[in-house]
Specification:
The structure is a homotetramer.
Chain A lengths: L2 H15 L2 E3 L4 H4 L11 E3 L1 H14 L10 E4 L15 E7 L4 E7 L3 E4 L6 E5 L2 E5 L4 E4 L5 E4 L6 E7 L1 H6 L5 E3 L14 H6 L4 E3 L14 E2 L1 H16 L10 E6 L13 E7 L4 E7 L3 E7 L2 E5 L2 E5 L4 E4 L5 E5 L3 E7 L1 H6 L5 E3 L5
Antiparallel strand pairs in A: 2-21, 3-4, 4-11, 5-10, 5-12, 6-9, 6-11, 7-8, 7-10, 9-14, 15-16, 16-23, 17-22, 17-24, 18-21, 18-23, 19-20, 19-22
Protein name (chains A, B, C, D): Gentisate 1,2-dioxygenase
Pfam families (chains A, B, C, D): Cupin_2
InterPro entries (chains A, B, C, D): Cupin_2, GDO-like, RmlC-like_jellyroll, RmlC_Cupin_sf
Chain lengths: ~350, ~350, ~350, ~350
């Protein structure tokens, strides 16, 4: 070892001793030319997920402590973490006949999306919200919520949360609610919907500055389906309205602001005519897509996977992503896009540029 | 005349000569302790208005030049001006069988509110919008619009605009459109509604920054009625939601922002249970109210007037205003409140303070 | 008279009787093709104004009732009204040695701009603000304010307010303050400046949502002059920064929002190199310009007027306006532009299009 | 093993096989009752840092690849990561006589804060910005920047970036700039300052919608010091203005919005009178503090450490933090607070509640 090598070795040891790390040995890892996500593009098939959820329903109780019988998608690029992507948590939650998932609240924002079945009510801050096929339900950060199944049939659905984001930000608070159901009634429509689910109408009792999260507890499939159908019909009639050719899409929004329904999560439903496609797109930030109905083919980077109803796809940051529809294809998606927009970190490329 | 009186007289003459006016002789008029509107509180009864509109339908043609068979409420405190208040224009517009009110556009924002009847389509930027009882239709500033009546029956409705405001601000632009109807079809729902009238759902083709005016061309009575009913039902069940006791109310809003449907005009529908009341309120800025159904009594300042369906009330700035409902009572109202909120000039007093 | 003429005559009489006015006879006046301001383009020369103000100083006392010895520019197109334009009030205020203009507050927003002289303090909500040549001082709506001259010399300045706007909107409130000066001290800098006049620095005690009006009570000539000089120097060095060739300009802004210093009034200072020009511009809304130093020529519509220091120009809505600088020319201007921007009524044309 | 134990074991194996992880075994880790940061409260002493930086200056070249001779604070709770906290990167950067740190740009937002010394210019998008004691310099995300030292003396400063945040979000882009200095001149003030460093004055060429990051490249110590002094003087005179008793503070803001100078980083300077204190505070999100001058004592959770000039403190999320000033004490701090505010995740407790 030359004297200068010795000095350098000593310097690095002294860095470590002093609680320091030099930039120049790690610059490329810390500041890559483009995002280098550890998360992988990955597909989970519903034919695998649902039977496992059923078995969990038989073997694992639901209740205080675990709180929820929720089985999270664990991205293979993030070993040991129950995270679909670095910011998004996605899980199948399963509630058996007569079961109750007890009341709690947390900083993390959450939604439920119902692939199939019905019969569970989510009680959000005391307001019972029915869950049915195709519905999107919100439980914004710090709202008390509990689920109960007053029927004789089990029910499963998709839970989406910003758990990894909030965890990475050390921003999580959690509180247990009362052990007894706040309201065990099973109304067809929640009170939130009765107040807010009227297009363009804002209750005078609810006017004021924009709220961070939507006050509308549920977005019903009947409305979503009608909105998507209308876009494709307009296209057939020669009018604008679709997001692209053969591609209808709606964003679930907060009626007090016109922005995303949840402060940290974007939620959308897309419909492709058979033979149509989502064009290749790269987005900074990650997303999860779920097939609501139909079949198609997804491409992410080099991977190509056939998709059927219920299949879930994790799309890491800046990976080229596209979908082709074999049949008419309905896709639900959620992402962390509001985070990037709020922090001036959003970028996207669409079409030839993105490939 | 003393020398100083002479000097003063000369000073005032020189003021006039130089194009000047001293503040001290007019201070109280220019800057009153509280608003001293020239406009009067005034009521126009539908039983008077509608027959006159019918006669105008027989005697006055509609077409280029006059553009519209619209008969404006002329506030007796603003003689010679066809203004309901210093900022608001309100008129009964009447369109006979097979008539067309030709296409034009203007800076002034406008809406139509339908008290009774149906059978006219308003074509807004080429999109035909059916008009039916209880509907609110928008024609935002600078949108081309025309009305046509393809039926055998006449139809009348309320027009509301910000003509006096825009006139006072010297901000008016006007353009004639084509003489031929852009689209003579008579669809049940406009394309704008097909895209936007889904609660909380925003077409992906329409996401972006908030628009100044709502893209939703029509707010249908079916939705407004349902929203008001739901609030009163919630109240009956012991839940919050009404604006006051026995008082349901919705504001017509812009789904891209959650704010008022039009940049300069606030529009709302109120429902009072029989025996309930709008509490005494003073607001800076003026409003027009129209009884949609039912009977009641309005008090403005010292005046008390019985109201029936179709009656119109002008409420000048800062006048104590209240309404008592004899029967169940539905009231439409529009005002200039967004102007005052945007300019930091809004004030209000409610209840005992306002009397 | 034919029967139909008789019927029509009767109809118009019945309109009047019922408090109605038809649109079709007035459409063009109510909704012109482009703004048709009643206000005229007009110039008031300082050589006329100042001597009259001096004479008023000798002949007219200042005090309660009249409140201010302010002599307003009265636009010849708005006879009887002390209004420079339909929205703007501009006056020369004159305060003699040892005089006090007593404390009051009002909804109307106000500023003072100092053409020459010094020695008066404006006390805004108890904070004494020195007035000196080239300074812009704010007294936002509803702030108590009073002026006192502790010196042996008189002082005059330009007052700008939104009196006509607030009057047209029936939004004015007024309150007398205490008869005794809140603070008779004569500090070099106000407390507001000591807290806020540091570039880009916001006191932690003053962070929060944007305020409607700027908390910075005074914008000093030393800073304005330096900012304008810097822009022209940058241009000379080949760098961007000027508003146009040979044209430096700054807007007085609210450090809590970056927007206009006052909610209803835009205030700016422009500097033209000798031989440079403000290009022909049309703007919806009106403005007042004052020459701060130098000479030039203004063109508004067909009028051309030579300008010297202190001269004031009223520019009505949508009139083509340009200025050519004979010498280096500093121009102060205020306008109602924030009103039009807030209400989605703003339009402008610059250059060849505007002529 | 009972049959049900076997079934459960099999279930967990099948979870793993299917790429799933159950919530119920990890709920408390994923969603703690309050933030449980892995990062530690930690203090780095300048007496240790600066000599190491000097030795690095002798032993390690600066240039392409490593890009910067920056030595990062590595939080002992985040082993192997050069991160001061989970979102914040803080480093001492050292540039020897005549050295150049080459041009590049990246998504990550950055600032420089100068503890001592001078003689380096940072060239931001071609605009040379002098660095001197007490100055804060910005290099917002995606701005090209390079540093050069045209003097014979070395210089060191603090770099702050959002590298960990951007890395966790997979949002990093990086580009090398030209190898030659864009501008080797050494002006006293940058062009950005000449345009923007005038209190409340916005260049007309720079008006428009708020920018995500401040256009003001440097906040000079002369202004910061004056602002802090003024607050304490106002307090001494009995006027409001300080953040607390004996505690002056300013936030570095974006003059186009009044918000934080950088989209993801809050930057502030605090001044405590000898004997005064920052009250105990808990904040969601993390911060780094650096003593600019003076001595004091910091308490974070159970730890108490004496601080002297240049010492750096990492404060993890929700840890009780307070400082007592032995002498007059100036403290610079930066944090990720804008992130939490934008995402509706911000919470704080001050005083007794926070202990």
């Amino acid at each position: 070892m030359t004297p200068s090598e010795t000095a350098l070795k000593q310097l690095y040891e002294d860095f470590a001793e002093a609680g320091l790390l030099p930039l120049w040995t790690q610059r490329e890892d810390l500041m890559p030319m483009t995002p280098q996500p550890a998360a992988h593009a990955h597909v989970w098939h519903w034919r695998d997920l649902y039977p496992i959820a059923q078995r969990a329903g038989e073997l694992v109780p639901v209740g205080r402590g675990g709180e929820r019988r929720a089985i999270a998608l664990a991205n293979p690029g993030l070993p040991g973490e129950p995270y679909a992507t670095p910011t998004l948590w996605a899980a199948v939650q399963y509630l058996g006949p007569r079961e109750v998932a007890p009341s709690h609240r947390h900083s993390q924002g959450a939604f439920r999306f119902v692939l199939e079945g019905e019969g569970v009510w989510t009680v959000v801050d005391g307001d019972p919200v029915a869950m049915r096929r195709g519905d999107l339900l919100l439980t914004p950060g710090w709202a008390f919520h509990e689920h109960h199944n007053p029927t004789d049939r089990p029910m499963a659905w998709l839970d989406g949360l910003d758990i990894p984001l909030v965890s990475g930000l050390d921003a999580g608070f959690f509180e247990f609610g009362p052990d007894r159901l706040a309201d065990s009634s099973t109304p067809d429509r929640s009170r939130a919907e009765r107040l807010w689910a009227h297009p363009g109408l804002r209750p005078l009792s609810g006017v004021g500055a924009p709220a961070a999260n939507s006050p509308l507890a549920a977005y019903r499939w009947q409305h979503t389906d009608a909105a998507l159908s209308a876009q494709l019909e307009l296209e057939s009639e020669g009018h604008p309205g679709t997001a692209g050719e053969g591609h209808a899409a709606v964003r679930f929004t907060n009626p007090t602001s016109g922005g995303d329904a949840l402060a940290t999560l974007r939620t959308e439903m897309h419909r492709l005519r058979a033979g149509s496609a989502l064009p290749v797109t790269r987005v900074v930030g990650s997303a999860v897509w779920q097939v609501f109905s139909g079949t198609g083919t997804v491409r992410i980077g080099d991977r190509t996977v056939r998709l059927a109803t219920g299949d879930l796809v994790a799309v890491p940051s800046w990976q080229p992503f596209s979908v082709e529809a074999d049949t008419d294809l309905d896709l639900f998606t959620f992402s962390d896009a509001p985070v990037y927009e709020a922090l001036n970190l959003y970028r996207t490329k669409i079409g030839a540029d993105a490939s």
